[in-house]
Amino acid sequence: MKARILVAYASHYGATREIAEFLAAKLRESGFEVDCSAMRELRTIDDYRGVVLGAPFYYGRWPRSARRFLNRFGPALAQRDVAVFATGRIEPTRTESEVRPQLDALLDRYGWLRPFASALFGGRWDPAALRGVDRWMRKLPGSPLHVLPATDLRDWDEIGAWATHVAAALHAAAAQPNSPPPNRSGPLVPARR
Ligand SMILES: Cc1cc2nc3c(=O)[nH]c(=O)nc-3n(C[C@H](O)[C@H](O)[C@H](O)COP(=O)(O)O)c2cc1C
């Protein structure tokens, strides 16, 4: 039987959801049965051996639905092969190493998660799509978003390469069904690439 994989995401404006759907399609091409679902809709993760988690950064942290998901499914996630991605960078002049500390802080905070792979992808920024408090925050003169033009820094080649990397690790884990998940016994692949 094929190993079932869950790609669970949080997304306010769709950019992270599109990455999650892309990753799910790539993992299906690699031979896995994959479900892709918003974190807030999931009631159980019992059916899955591997979980890919993804959420955007807002104001330096993950959205509430993602934090709730981590808290609710912590014990179950700790028993599974977990990979984590985040979206964030929307200023073309900022490098990945400048924004990476956000993800490192998140992974430190949820230290029990011990993902076998993690990545921070560029995000999408569309001021015209903003709703509610986001719209007002952007208008504040001191906000770095005040003058930022619309942009989409998602690099689909980079995301595809990460999907290949994750699929290879999940295949290796599935080939050793009696071994503990790689995130419990030490990473099969470098946690930070
Ligand atoms: C109001 C607002 C605050 C944001 N704060 C951050 C942040 O603190 N760090 C970061 O890296 N990106 C930040 N971003 C960029 C988002 O993470 C990026 O736009 C992401 O692609 C949004 O994903 P989504 O469309 O799935 O919600 C922010 C975007 C908005 C609109």
From TrEMBL:
Chain positions covered by the region annotation Disordered: 173-193
Domain called Flavodoxin-like: residue spans: 5-141
Pfam families: Flavodoxin_5
Entries under InterPro entries matching the protein: Flavodoxin/NO_synth, Flavodoxin_dom, Flavoprotein-like_sf, Protoporphyrinogen_IX_DH
Entry-linked PROSITE patterns: FLAVODOXIN_LIKE
Organism annotation: Nocardia tengchongensis
Protein name, entry field: Flavodoxin domain-containing protein
